[in-house]
Amino acid sequence: MEDVIYTFREQTWHLSAHRAIFWQEEQALIVSDLHLGKSTHFRKAGIPVPANIGQDDLYRLQLLITAYNPVQVIIVGDMFHSSENNDVPYFKLWRQQFAHISFKLVKGNHDILGAHLYEAMNVKVYDTLSIRTIHFVHEPCDNSEGYTFSGHLHPGIAVAGSGKQRLRLPCFYFGRNCSILPAFGKFTGLAMLEPEEDEAVFVIAENTVLKVN
Amino acid sequence: MKNKARGWQVITEWLAAHDRQPFVFQEEAWEHYIQGRSGLVNAPTGYGKTFSLFLGSVIDWINQHPENYKQKTKNGLQMLWITPLRALAKDIARAMIEVLEELDMPWQVGIRSGDTPVSTRQQQKKQMPEILIITPESLHLLLGQKDYPKVFTTLTTIVADEWHELLGSKRGVMVELGLSRLRGLAKGRAPLRVWGISATIGNLDEALDVLLGKPDATAVIVRAQLDKQIELQSILPDEIEKYPWAGHLGTKLLPKALPIILNSKTTLIFTNVRSQTEIWYHEILRQCPELAGAIALHHGSIDMELRVWVEDALHEGILKAVVCTSSLDLGVDFRPVDTVIQVGSPKGVARFLQRAGRSGHQPGAVSKIWFLPTHSLELVEAAALKAAMKEQLVESRMPVLLAFDVLVQYLMTLGISDGFHGAEIWEEITGTFCFRDMTEDEWQWILSFLTTGGEALYSYDEFKKLEREDDFYICRSRQLALRHRLHIGTIVSDAMLKVKFISGGFIGVIEEGFIARLQPGDAFSLAGHTLEFVMIKDMTALVRKSKAKRAIIPSWMGGRLPLSANLGSVLRRTFSEAMSGNTTEPELKILQPLFNLQEHLSHVPKDDELLVEKITTQDGFHLFVYPFEGRLVHEVMATLLAYRISKRQPITFSIAMNDYGFELLSDQEIPVTDEDVYALFSLENLSTDLQTSVNATEMARRKFRDIAVIAGLIFQGYPGKHKANRHLQSSASLLFNVFRDYDPQNLLLRQAFNEAFFYQMEEARLRESLERIYNNKIVITEPTQLTPFCFPIKVDSLRESLTSEKLADRIKKMRPQF
Fold this sequence. Notes:
The structure holds two protein chains of two kinds. Chain A is α/β, with parallel strands linked by helices. Chain A contains four helices and 16 strands. The relative contact order of chain A is 0.19. In chain B, helix 26 packs across helix 28 (747-760). The interface between A and B is large, with 52 and 54 residues.
């Protein structure tokens, strides 16, 4: 699985095809919208979706952590999909192998678990988080104060070519005022973005990351 | 002997008192019915098909209770009458009640459908009427009630009305499953009599087999030998040169249709899609304002109440014209209707016959139908339809096989009522046509899908749906049961929003995607109103009346039907006949200048030729091919060709098609020559080439949408409580991805691929046509400009793409879309 190195705002960002960003200067792995526990939530309600999606997502996160060896993991919201279920103890167990890495969650609209549960999972919860000049906020907003990194949207982009071809792919978006991360969880959909000319967009096509704008 | 039986005598006397005489096929059906047989009645609408079976059961009852049939009440349910349309139920009930009253028989006739009020349902629970008219969905709802077997203890007969309509659909599978349970319940009693009523289709014998499930040597098909005369006349443009080469509206010819409407008592104007009815309605009013109040429109997205009003008004004869879609294909007769206009191609012979039959109901009367072309080439279809009618080439309806989604739903339905024993239900459903080839493995998979969610049990799992106690399966969650009850059915529509006036008053429903593109203040058209969009609130689009001159016409998905194989083959012949120069058909004669131009620029293919046109425009390099096999076959054939060409060199195509042919468009020259073109249509390696070329995944993804809803994977919320449970929402497309990546053996996923191959790709038909083409002469021309044949494909078609370039290379050539 390859990544693309993008220098932006004088920082070095590794954009991984696994839908994550590694921030070299801060040794931080940044992911958003994991929606852990989603398939379990569905199954509890009698909707038989595959049970192992969340575990597969965590396995991919594990691969990324092993590859980049970060000191911190920043989750830009929607870490768990809904109320408590058996994926919480599973995460706790999984988390133990990375006890030395700090997990920081910037609260998203889906993050409704009780504070004690985050504590038990050894995850620090923030409403917003600022590191250097970057503000992490779950929902993208026009923050004139500085530059924000967000998630929430599950951004995708439709690309078109000659012969009237069209494709819809997940993407990293670097706008004037904010960046939006692709959703990390595989049990998530796409919301189409319409970037301006001067904004950078990287699509994730299978195992590669490509700049399209 | 038959005439001596009491019941027979009562009925013939009653008919004679009304100066009527039974049709031969009715007497035939009664006879078989009295003998206790099952079967199929083949008769057109308006010829007493209802009486052929209803009176049969009355005769039988009187025969058995000659002394006291006028006194006997509370006899329990005798006959289930399954109808596909709620609207039909009322009329059928009315007709039956009339007869029963005149015969002084105290039988009750009840209706059970989504519209039946709760009070009536409760009454029915206490005492079932002797005859219950029911929709397939409501039948399953009955099977989902506690103690449901009690309802059916006295049942002797089931009739599936409009069986041809149900046959090719998953609602037909619901009927098959319902029948299998009712047969199971009747074990140890006299076998149930099961009858179908069907219009003429190409596979009547098979239609009977599906109804019966297991072969029954005594079952019969009763055919009404009634010649219904149909006359087709085209509305011709004055100057064919000025009539558009492409298009699908046809309003240009409205001035020529207006006199026909004005000179008729009541006219039905059939269009193919809902948006077209809206456009036609507005255009008629614009050109002929005096018709205001005397015309109406009718399609599936209009409020039920309004539709019922339109239907009643048609009965009363107070409407001059109704613009409609297939929503009025079915149903009882509207006697005042004396004229039918078909706008654009009906796409199939059976549908055309059905629509033509909506006028001229008196037995023996000629049904007249006008054909109004939406673009010039469509006139050829009129000529082809005439030939097809003459030769009685009516399409078959293919029964649905192994619809696991419907089975999952059905088992859950049994689970929420009394529960079921696996062995017993296995026996019953493998006795249906749909599931007779189901394997033991598939059955076990379905059961585990419902009990463990398809996963082997492991400690973290919390799946809950059906509970298993040895071989007994039951749902013990009241919440799940409630939710399931709301989801029973197989008609899946797009996410629809209700449209309501701010001041109150329901207008209809509209696709969510359409509303999403509107800004507040935009004007759009629905049910003939011009409306201003105000806002969305609680899954309802609020609107007010608008005075805007221009309004956006919503487009509803899914209206476009492909050309049938029958019509396609007649069409090829008709083209070749047109060029022979000795045709007498007015439609072909008027098209002569167009054919001449086509011949001048390129070529008009003969019966045994396939035309291929290579044209270069600023869009790129085009390859047009004309097999006349209908859009679905073209979609697959085009993809196959594109794939085979792309094996010669890396190349990317965009593909477009209509019912006549298809187009491959590329940014590079397309390498096809007279010599190597035949290899493109070869049957060699067809299966492998198909598997790799066709975007089966995308096709299956589309098919999966309905499957996911029917199998209960899509959480649709509770009425009025949509906001809660937001965390359970997901799209079918997302579920499809998830199953594909994490559970590729999932049977519902496999069903989606099968449906894509068999129904979408029509694989069998594709093989046949490839074989035909391979043995034909392929003519390649290189016109310097667009031809009359290729024009409609280029400007008015649906597009797909195929590539042999690497995804990354393609994206590098692409630009983001804004």
